[in-house]
Amino acid sequence: MGSPLNIIAIQASVHLPFDHRMLVQNLTAQTFNKASVSPSVQATFPYMFAVSRYLQPGTFDLVGTIVYEIDQKPYQNTFYNGTVEVVEAGGFLSVESVFLVTLGIALLVLLALWLHGQFQLTTKKTKKAPKVEVGIGTTDASLDEWLQGTAYTQSASKSKKKK
């Protein structure tokens, strides 16, 4: 029969899936104070962890490692090396959904204002300019009394005779 395994700790880390050298987060190590497992016996050890709440949702690599000793010589083995999906905590509202709804409403309001302006331009009635008298026109003779005997009345009478 062999020596018993003394479990020292379990630890895990999260890495980027496209470059395993890029460490995203070290997870808490769970120590077991040399829990002993006899040879030919299987054992299960709880390891609870949570990623940072600031970690963006996405796909990551999770690597779980167990640290143990046999005859007071330390060893470590990877017991899990796989891909995990990190998702947002389930809730009715998220920051992203609030932002997208607000952006959508703002764009609809801007579109409505633009359409209103275009409608106003097409239905606007143009005001007629007030009639302004330009040049010499016929006027009442009584208004020209003060011009009697001047060059103006003489030229006006000559132009009437030519017609």
Automatic annotation (TrEMBL):
Pfam families, per database record: TRAP_alpha
Keyword list, A-Z: Calcium, Endoplasmic reticulum, Membrane, Signal, Transmembrane, Transmembrane helix
Family annotation (InterPro entries): TRAP_alpha
Membrane topology recorded in Swiss-Prot or TrEMBL: Single-pass type I membrane protein
Keyword Ligase tagged: no
Membrane-spanning residues: 97-115
Protein's cellular compartments: Endoplasmic reticulum membrane
Origin: domain of life: Eukaryota
Main location per the UniProt record: endoplasmic reticulum
Cellular component GO terms, alphabetical: endoplasmic reticulum; endoplasmic reticulum membrane
Domain notes: Shows a remarkable charge distribution with the N-terminus being highly negatively charged, and the cytoplasmic C-terminus positively charged.
Role summary: TRAP proteins are part of a complex whose function is to bind calcium to the ER membrane and thereby regulate the retention of ER resident proteins. May be involved in the recycling of the translocation apparatus after completion of the translocation process or may function as a membrane-bound chaperone facilitating folding of translocated proteins.
Binding partners and assembly: Heterotetramer of TRAP-alpha, TRAP-beta, TRAP-delta and TRAP-gamma.
The family this protein is said to belong to: Belongs to the TRAP-alpha family.
Name of the protein in question: Translocon-associated protein subunit alpha
Gene source species: Gossypium hirsutum
